[in-house]
Amino acid sequence: MLNYTIRRLLFTIPTLLFISLIIFLLLDLAPSDPTGNLPLSIPAEVREQIRQSLGLGEPIHIRYYKWLVQFFINEPLNIIEQMFDITIGDGDRLRVTSWSTRSPVVDLVLERMPQTLWVVGMSYVVGVLIAIPIGVYSAYRQYSWFDQTGTFISMVGFSVPTFFTGVLLIVIFSTIVPTDSFFWLPSIYDTTHKVTDLASFGFQIRQMIMPVFVLGLFNAAQISRYMRASMLDNLGLDYVRTARAKGLTENVVLLVHVLRNSLIPVVTVIALGIPQVFGGAIITEQVFKVNGLGHLLIGGIEAADIPLVQTLTFIFAVLIVFFNLIADILYGILDPRIRYD
After folding, report:
1. Does residue 268 register a pLDDT over 60?
2. Residue 221 burial (CB count, 10 A)
3. HEC states along 79-104?
4. pLDDT in tens, 201-219
5. How confident is the model at residue 278 (pLDDT cuts 50, 70, 90)?
6. CA 314 – CA 17 distance, rounded (Å)
7. How many whole angstroms separate alpha carbon 143 and alpha carbon 154?
8. 44 and 33 in contact (C-beta within 8 Å)?
9. What is d(CA 55, CA 67) in angstroms, rounded to the nearest whole number?
10. Of 168-177, 206-215, 254-263, which range is least confident?
11. What does the CA dihedral 245, 249, 251, 256 come to, rounded to 10 degrees?
12. How far apart are CA 331 and CA 8, in angstroms?
């Protein structure tokens, strides 16, 4: 397993370099203009000077090389300096800078990430914790009223888009319900809110309920279907009948033997869904005005902020590759028959 992990990590280096090249070329060659949002009264020569100051006058391979150096060398060195309060070299190095805000992109990501983890990350955890028990019990009680109800809710949760569910909850709990009612919930997520006492903690929970519910329902609907299908595939196998013939209790058979083997395909769905947390569930963040990574990405696209969009997109690609490796490693842990020799 260790040798396999090392080989995969070495293989990810050319993979990520190729992905970074594709992302850079696609965004750089796209018909976008960083000066497009400026007033029309600005002369053409001034616009050209702005483009030159952003480095757009250099050849594309030079700009790609500079971006690689800034992202893979300068940014990690800057993080190390901040973590350990030291200075490496002269400390004066170019960083990946946003065109619209003139701030380092990594600093913007670190600033927005807590909001994304609070809302979208919590919704993913809640969705997984709900989906696995529902999927297990639905498979064990196949075609029961619980299974039928779970199937219906899952189909609705997976089919209805999150922006519709979010707007519907806002209309019900933020518009129809009076503001002095216990069931009233804020429609806009206040990113500046700080938890200092019990009352502020209660408000934090209240403003998280709707976005967490919307995303949690969507995630739970998908994962519970995979869990149910995987459990049904294993319940009819010979090893289950053998375990029951040995006199093992139904709980041991179901939760120890069947569940462990059934989790193998579900692990892939869960692991590959984690990068969506950092993607920020873009639409839901827009609906509830959560100032997270998804909101940051949308702002970068609207402003034609190529360095910001390139860096965020590449970070999401890195997370997908990394959690793909985590899923493969978990395969070997969950199923002793799987070996990567």
Report:
1. yes
2. 23
3. HHHHHHCCCCCCCCCCCCECCCCCCE
4. 888 889 899 999 988 888 8
5. low
6. 10
7. 15
8. no
9. 11
10. 254-263
11. -60
12. 15
Instruction: Write down the domain spans for the chain.
Output: 2-34+110-334
Instruction: Tokens for 51, please give them.
Output: 């483009």
Find residue 104's DSSP bridge partners. 97
**pLDDT recorded at residue 252:** 87
Q: How far apart are CA 46 and CA 252, in angstroms?
A: 74
Annotate 60-70 with b (16+ C-beta within 10 A) or e (fewer): eeebbeebeeb
Rounded to two decimals, the pTM is 0.80
pLDDT of residue 131: 92
pLDDT at residue 103 is higher than 60 = yes
pLDDT at 224: 92
Could you tell me the CATH superfamily of domain 2-34+110-334? Answer: MetI-like (1.10.3720.10)
pLDDT higher than 70, residue 339 = no
CA–CA dist 307, 313 (Å, integer): 10
Burial of residue 251 (CB within 10 Å: 0-12, 13-18, 19+) is: exposed
Count of residues making up the chain: 341
The amino acid at residue 199 is: A
CB-neighbour burial class of residue 40 (10 A; exposed 0-12, middle 13-18, buried 19+): exposed
Rg, C-alpha atoms of the chain: 24
CB burial class (10 A; 0-12, 13-18, 19+) of residue 37? exposed
According to DSSP, the residues that pair with 97 across neighbouring strands are: 104
